[in-house]
């Protein structure tokens, strides 16, 4: 099998699975990690994949932002670990705002083990799951529905949030660059997240390694805007170019 044939097979596997790790490629094709790296960089240059630390995910050049249904199938195990760690930071009897995002959904599922908490969310995914749990205090936040986020956003959402105060908010990121800037594709999504953060005593940021070294138009602050950061990216301390001391608490799962 020549290099071109191997790259085509790798591209097909990434398209089918959504994402693939460098270890999986090396094991399947019996090649070195260095060769895997060259193959993935070639596929990235062709616009086929988007690289993340330790692998690649499928990239459709016609799509700027993938829908929740696609995101839900990516990095499931990593999101579960992040969910478990993030949920451990929440005290019983707290008020918690759960923002949109598939990683936040995994946290919501873990939080059902807590007692006497009040949950607020603008995420339809979180509402659907938590609404099935008995003896749980759940509050739906109104707004304009955005399908790509599977959540309610905009001025109505912000106005509603302005009258509330939360012990914790859990925010998902779509991109974190080396300067610690946290950003999103959508302006209304970013505005809503910033409004939630302003009304929360303790802010928790969650993201998997595929969000690293990305940068989008609408920022919600820097990584040191958060009291706690939970990620599966092992090299997060080396990656950040700014002063790490300013970040409250970085937890790596």
Structural write-up:
It is built from 10 helices and 15 strands. The chain is of the alpha/beta class. It has a 7-stranded parallel β-sheet with strand order 6-5-4-9-12-14-15. The chain has a 3-stranded antiparallel β-sheet with strand order 1-3-2. A 3-stranded antiparallel β-sheet has the order 10-11-13. β5 (118-121), α7 and β6 form a beta-alpha-beta unit. α5 packs across α6 (102-111). The protein is elongated, with a radius of gyration of 19 Å. The relative contact order is 0.12. The model has no long low-confidence stretch (mean pLDDT 89).
Summary, kept brief:
The protein is of the alpha/beta class. 37% of the residues lie in helices and 25% in strands.
What sort of overall outline do the alpha carbons produce when their principal axes are compared?
elongated
Mean pLDDT: 89
How many strands, what sense, and barrel or not for the largest sheet? 7 strands, parallel
- Count of discrete alpha- or pi-helical segments spanning 4 or more residues: 10
Order of helices and strands: HEHHEEHHEHEHEEEHEEEHEEEHE
Class derived from helix and strand content: alpha/beta
Number of strands: 15
Give the oligomeric state of the chains in this entry, treating copies of one chain as homo and distinct chains as hetero.
single chain
**Order of strands side by side in the largest beta sheet?**
6-5-4-9-12-14-15
The low-confidence parts are none
Q: Helicity, in percent?
A: 25-40%
Beta fraction of the residues? 15-25%
Query: What is the terminal-to-terminal distance?
Result: 38 Å
Radius of gyration: 19 Å
């Amino acid at each position: 099998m020549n290099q071109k044939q191997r790259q085509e097979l790798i591209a097909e596997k990434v398209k089918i699975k959504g994402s693939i790790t460098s270890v999986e490629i090396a094991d399947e094709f019996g090649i070195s990690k260095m060769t895997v790296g060259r193959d993935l960089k070639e596929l990235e240059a062709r616009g086929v994949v988007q690289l993340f630390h330790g692998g690649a995910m499928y990239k459709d050049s016609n799509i700027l932002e993938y829908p929740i249904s696609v995101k839900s199938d990516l990095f499931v195990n990593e999101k579960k670990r992040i969910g478990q760690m993030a949920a451990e930071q929440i005290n019983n009897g707290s008020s918690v705002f759960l923002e949109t995002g598939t990683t936040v959904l995994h946290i919501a599922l873990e939080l059902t083990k807590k007692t006497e908490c009040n949950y607020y969310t603008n995420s339809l995914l979180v509402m659907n799951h938590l609404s099935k749990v008995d003896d749980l205090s759940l509050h739906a936040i109104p707004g304009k529905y955005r399908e790509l986020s599977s959540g309610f956003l905009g001025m109505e959402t912000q106005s509603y949030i302005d009258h509330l105060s939360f012990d914790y908010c859990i925010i998902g990121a779509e991109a974190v660059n080396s300067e610690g800037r946290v950003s999103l594709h959508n302006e209304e999504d970013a505005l809503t997240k910033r409004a939630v953060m302003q009304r929360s005593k303790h802010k928790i940021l969650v993201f998997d390694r595929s969000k690293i070294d990305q940068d989008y138009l609408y920022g919600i602050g820097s990584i040191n805007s958060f009291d706690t950061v939970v990620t599966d990216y092992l090299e997060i301390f080396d990656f950040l170019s700014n002063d790490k001391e300013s970040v409250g608490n970085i937890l790596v799962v």
